[in-house]
Structure prediction request, 342 residues.
Amino acid sequence: MTVRVRFFARFRELLGTDIPAELETGSTLLSLVRSIAEKKEEGYTAIFDEHGNFHEFVIVMRNGKRVEHEDAAAVRISDGDEIAVFPPVAGG
Amino acid sequence: MLSERERERYKRQMMLFGDEGQELLKKAHIFIAGAGGLGSPVSLYLAVAGIGTITIVDMDDVDQTNLNRQILHYDRDIGKKKTVSAEEKLTAINPDIRVNAIEARIDETSAARLIGNADGIVDAMDNYPTRYLLNDIAIRKKIPLFHGAIRGFYGQATTIIPGTTPCLKCIFPKAPPKEVFPVVGATPGVIGTVQATEVLKYFLKSGDLLTNRLFIWDGLAGRAEEIRTERSPCCPACGTVIPEKGGKKK
Prediction:
């Protein structure tokens, strides 16, 4: 199955965006984002803490709906899903 | 009533919204939190549009490192209070409006008093703790919060109408770590003018506000995108004002 992962802001600078991913059935949201972020260490550490959990400020959305961090390990990805991962932009 | 000078000054925009619209802008009082990268274009464009009263608050002095983006302040202003510099420029660009430039820190003890009876708040801050404070006061006073934020070539904006749209804490429940952010001046130029446009539309009661959506500008990609936003029923800032079925409040 194919899904699309979109990073925004700093995460986009580090990891790119609109990343199509081929997945095995049963993959979770957390494992999907981890597997893409792992390709660049700086990108990974920007999104995940040392335990491999999302940093608390990271916003994760699946098909336009927010996913709570504690649910990300249980949410199964479906074919065609669109995942958005972004930090709050803070400067003014 | 508009003076002859005001009619001449605003002639080209009154083609869009007439005397009635211009009077609405003249009656409006906007609060701008910050006279920096975002506060500069927001305040300049709202001043020339004829927003009747602009309150702008900042606590800093003009520093040379501000000048790549904070277009309210000139090289000659280095070392001056940003509020002094802001008042001088805004009054010079439009002497027909009232400018209250207040040197103050926006914190829990001062925020509500500084915002006073303003009709709306522009978020031109550079940190989330102060943004959350502005969000709380917008909710309490039931006035809109025009959010904007930038980093590098990247920016975001949304318009928050308390009781109707998600609040800032619904969208961004946790603040990111503090950093000295990189930025080119054109980025707050884009986002600040989006915020100023939102303020004008709100007071003119026209167009579609950036409500329930986060506008995202990626200058490097040359692309604008949107993310749909939703209210969080358990939001610690606005969750208690979500109307239940039948319009009752919790």
